[in-house]
Amino acid sequence: MPSMAAEKSDVLLAEEIKQQANEAFKANKFSHAIDLYTKAIELNGENAVYWANRAFAHAKLEEYGSAIQDASEAVEIDPKYSKGYYRRGAAYLAMGKFKEALKDFQQVKRISPNDPDASKKLKECEKAVMKLKFEEAISVPTSEQRSVAESIDFRTIGTGTDPSYHSLQVTAAAVAVALMAILLLVVRPFVATVVASAALAIFLVVNKTGWWAGYTDGFLTKSQILNIDVEPQYDGARIEGDVITLDFVKKMMDDFKNQKLLHKRYAFQIVLQTREILMALPSLVDINVSDGKHFTVCGDVHGQFFDLLNIFELNGLPSEENPYLFNGDFVDRGSFSVEVILTLFAFKCMSPSAIHLSRGNHESKSMNKIYGFEGEVRSKLSDKFVELFAEVFCYLPLAHVINEKIFIVHGGLFSTDGVKLSDIRAIDRFCEPPEEGLMCEILWSDPQPNPGRGPSKRGVGLSFGGDVTKRFLKDNNLDLVVRSHEVKDEGYEIEHDGKLITVFSAPNYCDQMGNKGAFIRFEAPTMEPKIVTFSAVPHPDVKPMAYASNFLRMFN
Hints:
This protein is of the alpha/beta class. It contains 21 helices and 14 strands. It has helices spanning 4-26, 30-43, 48-60, 64-77, 82-94, 98-111, 116-138, 163-186, 189-206, 219-226, 246-257, 264-279, 305-315, 337-350, 365-371, 373-380, 383-393, 421-425, 438-444, 466-475, 550-553; strands at 284-287, 294-298, 324-326, 355-357, 399-402, 406-409, 446-447, 453-455, 462-464, 480-483, 492-495, 500-503, 517-523, 528-534. The radius of gyration is 26 Å and the shape is globular.
């Protein structure tokens, strides 16, 4: 049994280590801060502050599952420690679990009723929950949802309104007028007016004109889209006909570099043509690299357009002779996500085999709603594009295999052994990511240093060890797993005895992590990975998360 003097010594030492951890946190060395907080906890595990601080560091690394665990431990130790609830609520918010977050912020408010910051965050969380309930109330069942893309024909944009859509509007008005005329004969004028107005409103709602909150779909939307003319004074990049050329892409990138937007008419064309290409692809795409040729794999870009341009400066533009795979998470967090996604999609349209695109966990409605892409699209394009991108993201492949030896996914491997490539090919990917199963694990899982499997530090997916990686490779006659999904100090990390490489291509992530970016070049026939690292380049003074939800910006 330790003496009182030894216990006192441990408490003092733990406090010293906590101070060191705080300094590491301030220097954005979050992994090091976690290690130090862990040492403090080992010396004095009954201090709620240590747990809450470690939860905050986990949240900075997007390890929200671990953040929730630590914050829960903090409030168990001290049920009146408001910061514990605060940290847990923030982690729930970051995961899109608004109802759970609301409970924690309500508890913060009860403990600290006069705290204006707590009141502000509670109010924002209440608004988010109300919005969620509203969206659930007006949502259309999946089986009844109509394709946004199929209501748009970019070839007719700017050529005038489809007469059939005018006729629908005329019909709606005629129905309302006729109904009012009939009612006037049999009921009082006031009642007739109310009933007819209600009938017209129901008609508009059924056709989803979206008067309630800017939700635009149905016949009015197509009429509006068809009237998007390219103004004579527009001096940006233009697509001539159906073919997207290298000259157009270069002009568009140069415009983006100068913070000029692409005309919506051409943005529609790029996204719609990309959709046609992606729809035809399987969930797992096989890529062949001929002897003497090379292939480049990039990780997360996260809306860092100027770093994307730097990759092309260092490694050349995508082409048949210089093909790329971008391994998901093209958007969110960085505030130039529209520029990134239109550039990648334009290259895909220009030459489908010059660039391959994998889905990441941020190519989803739930993530885009929270982390900025949805807000950015509304600001730079329109509400219609929010729906269109969400639809097209569902067509992105989930995995690629190069030369039958290199397996590439955004996140990682699976909760069970025995998964074959044929199982991945069979995934019906045309949906929002589910919360469990193969598709979820492909997008969310992470490697761990220990063998076996463990809970996910993110709260979604799982963690898997080197033994899991080696069995998967052996079962499928593969040599290497390449994945992304995690920021790394050097832009990459080699794990699991060289059988797994993480590559991350967003340097100085969110303008605060100080990490390098990286990409991997493979050259046939050896296909040995050659890793190139690079540093962040300057960008215009638009902060990361500039378009993110109000409540999330509060925590950043």
